[in-house]
């Protein structure tokens, strides 16, 4: 009789970020204590319905499910996007180190990478591109990619870094515009033109809307 195949390992749960509004004192060795104002990175997949795994300031432990679904905490909506939008590299790295998805989408369908390019935050962009699972040419609900954002906003260094990292310059948005079409800066348009001449394979590419990205959070 053939042995049954091993069960696949469970996928890690989505990580949400909360700010504690009250102190919590651990009652067992498995629990985690934290203080008012601390940021909690909480997985939505726990050992049972009563406990959820969390990290805080480098510590790991369990927190009661009823603590994070009550008025004891304030959930931070799309924390990675907010860090990228503001150029907050320290918070961004903290989110990534605590397993917040780099490809999650906000209500506009945009990734954190898009907002880093929109704001011209080169350090944040470099940090995100170092992540092996990052999706570079994901489109938002308007069809814009991070390359569209960087080109339109005139962030030359971001455009160059995206192109060097393999961003697709042939993707059209919902208005059928390529990144080169929205570029206002002649030097940026030149960079895009050169990239498109080098990579004619993508000229007839299909749109990559939400490709490889997590659903909205």
Automatic annotation (TrEMBL):
This is Osteoclast-stimulating factor 1. It comes from Trichostrongylus colubriformis. SMART domains: ANK, SH3. InterPro entries: Ankyrin_rpt, Ankyrin_rpt-contain_sf, SH3-like_dom_sf, SH3_domain. SUPFAM superfamilies: Ankyrin repeat, SH3-domain. Residues 13-73 form the SH3 domain. Induces bone resorption, acting probably through a signaling cascade which results in the secretion of factor(s) enhancing osteoclast formation and activity. It is found in: Cytoplasm. ANK repeats lie at residues 142-174.
């Amino acid at each position: 009789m053939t042995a049954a195949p091993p069960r696949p390992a469970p996928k890690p749960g989505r990580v949400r970020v909360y700010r504690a509004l009250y102190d919590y004192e651990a009652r067992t060795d498995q629990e985690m204590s934290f203080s008012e104002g601390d940021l909690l990175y909480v997985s939505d997949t726990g050992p049972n319905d009563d406990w959820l795994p969390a990290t805080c300031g480098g510590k790991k432990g369990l927190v009661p499910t009823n603590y994070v679904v009550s008025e004891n905490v304030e959930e931070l909506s799309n924390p990675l996007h907010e860090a990228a939008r503001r150029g907050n590299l320290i918070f961004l790295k903290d989110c990534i180190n605590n397993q917040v998805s780099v490809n999650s989408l906000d209500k506009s369908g945009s990734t954190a990478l898009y907002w880093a390019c929109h704001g011209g935050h080169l350090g944040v962009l470099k940090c995100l591109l170092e992540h092996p699972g990052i999706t570079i040419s994901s489109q938002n609900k308007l069809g814009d990619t991070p390359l569209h954002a960087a080109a339109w906003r005139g962030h030359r260094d971001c455009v160059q870094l995206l192109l060097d990292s393999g961003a697709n310059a042939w993707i059209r948005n919902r208005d059928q515009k390529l990144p080169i079409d929205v570029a206002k800066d002649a030097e940026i348009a030149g960079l895009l033109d050169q990239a498109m001449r080098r990579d004619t394979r993508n000229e007839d590419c299909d749109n990559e809307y939400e490709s490889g990205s997590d659903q909205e959070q």
